[in-house]
User: Which sequence fits this backbone?
């Protein structure tokens, strides 16, 4: 559900036409359309770089973690997970809200990682590293539309 | 409800991939039409009741339908009719903003024709009113947005036909 | 729904046999049966008189109103509306409660007249005039069973 | 529910007309029977439980139905049976007051036969109890009102047959 | 519904696995299994004795009661009722809770006896007598698992 | 739900009689198996989540099912899968305690196969997981209780097959 759908759902729940606050939200969203598209494209083109560099910084900060114990499968799975989260952030940038991240990557995430025995605090650190690298890759204008979703990600773990 | 953006993202996630060029291009066009859509929604929000009054007066009043035995008699039915037309206008506006008809299918058309038939609501007159509404709208939001709104009112008409 | 049906519905909602208060209501209603029938008949026989005379008094009190601007259609519709309301009052007299008026003439009435651009305050004045003329037409005993419904009508606008 | 008065008013409104002579005449007769109806309802209100006890004792007790395996065993079922008979008495009284059976169709008979069959409630015994109730009622409200009440208890019996 | 089913239903309502309190209840129930079976058997074997002796004591305490007015049918029905209640107590002893008594003999009991004109206070006395006789028949260990249900019975009237 | 004890008492009450010898004997055997059943339930209560993790790891992970397009992707579905397996374990424990499968039919299997088919949940993989759960359980509660629990997990498997 994109920001558009979200605003509509809210207006519909109130059983009235769009309020001026809702109108304003939509105007603001559409005004940043070009930036959103550029930011999403850059995240796609640089996923590898962000994950590789992110993992390095992560292991430096937090060496004692499943993906850093010489088990190649766990290392691979960890990096795959990171790539997936970068992808979900790119979806959010285009949707204008956190829903893609929440629906795809966060709803049920705690139960999953707890059951897998992957420590959430470590995941938190890893997500922080992804954000830092992304900030180097995106222009400040682009990072402005992407940052809230990286932050949501860090807060979620 | 679905909306253009989500309908582009979900299939990409099913493949675990980023948006491809054509998808991004489609989004781009939608983003560019954004301000036109929002402007029309703004006008409609501020003049809905007069749009409805005009629609009713020039398509339904001063005939048998408002007399005893007619489906807009008594006041309860007259008001129900105003309410329905207001529903159609509101949901057509939503659909126009999302550039997606799914909300009409889910929230408006789902079971409506059957309800109207059961209650003896004359569907031809509903359609007449919806066609009138298209003209009333074009007068107030202009030709481009009027045409775009027409797409969704026509979708309702099709669903009732 | 007549007073009978109303009392039954109330007793049914309480899931018990009729209470003495409910019994009393019914006794009172049936005791006035003859008067109700006479009053209803007189309203029917005098509808024209009541509306014609009522309109005169109404325009005198409230000249600036749609039905008084030389548009014959609007004048006709206004008088038709008045006749309809007299008829609904006669139904109430026989039913012993306000339901016929509420269900037929008041439920949705505001939305309707607002959308039509017919001013509710003017309608209020017009209904008052109908009551006054009716009081001349009906005996005091008959008016006693009709008055509450004219009052409801005035209050509603 | 419908009732005599409303069933006369509604069709008149559909035509936008006042009540005609025959309709007024019909109302007149109903109004005149009013005090008889109310008097009977009054008596029933004050003696319902004894009406039910008498009905049960002289139609259902002291046989197999109250023994293990019978449909009035155990206490839950015995009480359900008392409750049902009380429902029948209460709704028949309402119908008698409204001089209209519709409340019986809407609130009592709607799906009842199916329920009884599913639960193994012996319908012939229910009918036996309803017939007994007619006699018990005539004893307490007199012949005229007793006959009028009989009309509505018979309507229930017909609906279960 | 036995104690087992009751504990399960409670745990299920809480949407979790069995709590230690629930486990304890079950351990306690099963630990008394043999005693329960012996007690139930004795109640069955001695029903006649309990009812005959119970009736004597009941009529002594409460002579003015339907079953003591020379109407053999009423006397028979009363003693049948007493036998039924002894049977329901034996069910409870095996189920480990009051449900069999509640579901079979108490749910709707007041409406039934009120409608039958059998005085509840007298029934209360009669149930007390059944308990006294049972106490003579059962060992104290057995009576310990049966007494709560006789008490429930007395309280219920 | 039914349970062994109630299923023995109810038919006796329908006949108005006490429990006969064979019924008492059946209860006796059930009572004797009681401590074994409770002990197993106790172990399960304290180690459910590790039982589920082991079951998932050795039957479902590291393949396509957790990848985009797979039914355990994304996290919502992965969590739904953990939840379902936890349901199966909890209700199988209840049934084992009651020595009666009825709770599985009423609360778990009722409509489940249809739901799974509608949602594209791969039933063969669910069954694979349930079979794995039997081994994981035997490791933690021992052979006797493990076999008894197997009876109820097999009942679920049968209901899905
Ligand atoms: C039985 C319930 C019921 C009522 C009452 C009712 C009324 C009703 N009044 C109408 C019009 C109207 N009604 C009025 C009434 C008045 N003008 C005045 O100055 C006075 C304040 C007032 C008379 C007391 C007027 C002026 C119109 C025409 C409005 C227009 O066309 O602009 C219309 C629309 C025209 C048509 O009939 O198609 C309806 C439906 N409909 C119903 O189902
Ligand atoms: C948001 C989705 C939605 C829609 C679309 C909707 C429509 C809708 N219109 C209804 C009735 C109605 N609709 C009308 C409408 C009309 N009668 C005419 O003659 C005119 C031609 C026409 C107006 C254009 C009338 C008069 C009724 C009442 C019919 C009756 O109760 O007899 C009803 C039956 C329940 C009710 O009366 O409220 C529904 C559900 N409800 C919803 O929740
Ligand atoms: C298992 C649950 C259950 C019970 C207990 C039960 C009882 C029961 N007791 C009855 C009667 C009766 N029960 C009594 C009982 C008593 N008289 C006394 O003085 C004492 C206070 C008391 C005995 C302790 C009497 C006197 C009657 C006959 C009432 C009459 O016919 O007037 C009847 C109606 C007659 C018949 O059997 O058809 C029932 C159904 N039914 C059930 O499903
Ligand atoms: C107001 C409309 C209304 C009616 C009429 C009504 C009837 C009604 N009677 C029922 C049961 C029952 N009805 C009876 C009645 C009888 N058994 C006999 O053997 C006698 C012959 C007979 C009494 C005359 C019994 C014993 C049950 C319980 C059956 C069971 O649960 O096994 C049930 C099933 C649910 C329940 O047990 O409460 C319904 C719905 N409920 C309603 O809301
Ligand atoms: C798009 C939403 C989504 C995600 C994210 C997801 C993740 C996911 N991560 C997994 C494993 C894993 N994930 C990690 C992750 C990490 N190890 C670390 O040290 C770090 C803290 C962290 C990387 C930042 C590890 C180590 C495993 C393997 C755990 C194991 O097999 O023991 C698995 C189970 C193995 C499999 O793929 O079958 C899944 C399903 N599934 C989804 O549907
Ligand atoms: C207590 C009774 C009970 C049961 C049993 C139950 C099952 C159940 N599992 C469901 C979904 C699901 N069940 C699974 C399970 C699996 N997918 C796989 O690939 C694995 C093989 C498997 C785990 C072993 C999944 C992934 C879904 C979500 C499917 C979807 O929403 O697309 C749903 C649909 C609604 C929902 O998503 O919550 C129900 C009702 N719900 C209940 O209340």
Assistant:
């Amino acid at each position: 559900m994109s920001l558009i759908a979200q605003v509509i759902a809210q207006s519909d729940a109130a059983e009235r036409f769009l309020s001026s606050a809702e109108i304003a939200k939509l105007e603001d969203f559409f005004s940043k359309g070009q930036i959103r598209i550029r930011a999403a494209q850059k995240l796609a083109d640089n996923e590898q770089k962000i994950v590789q560099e992110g993992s390095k910084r992560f292991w430096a900060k937090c060496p004692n973690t499943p993906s850093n114990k010489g088990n190649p499968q766990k290392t691979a799975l960890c990096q795959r997970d990171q790539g997936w989260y970068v992808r979900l952030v790119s979806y959010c940038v285009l949707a204008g809200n956190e829903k893609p991240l929440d629906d795809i990557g966060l709803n049920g995430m705690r139960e999953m990682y707890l059951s897998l025995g992957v420590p959430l605090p470590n995941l938190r650190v890893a997500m922080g590293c992804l954000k830092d690298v992304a900030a180097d890759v995106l222009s400040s204008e682009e990072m402005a539309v992407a940052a809230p979703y990286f932050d949501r990600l860090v807060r979620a773990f | 409800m679905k909306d253009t953006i989500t309908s582009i993202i979900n299939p990409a996630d099913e493949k675990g991939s980023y948006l491809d060029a054509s998808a991004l291009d489609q989004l781009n066009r939608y983003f560019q039409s954004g301000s036109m859509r929002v402007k029309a929604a703004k006008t409609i929000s501020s003049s809905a009741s007069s749009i409805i009054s005009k629609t009713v007066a020039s398509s339904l009043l001063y005939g048998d339908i408002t007399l005893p035995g007619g489906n807009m008699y008594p006041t309860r039915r007259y008001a129900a009719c105003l309410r329905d037309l207001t529903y159609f206008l509101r949901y057509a506006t939503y659909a126009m903003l999302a550039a997606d008809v799914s909300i009409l299918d889910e929230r408006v058309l789902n079971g409506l024709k059957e309800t109207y038939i059961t209650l003896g609501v004359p569907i031809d007159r509903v359609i007449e009113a919806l066609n009138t509404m298209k003209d009333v709208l074009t007068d107030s939001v202009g030709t481009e947005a009027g045409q775009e709104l027409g797409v969704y009112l026509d979708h309702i008409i099709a669903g009732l036909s």
Q: What stands out?
A: Chain F has a mean pLDDT of 96.
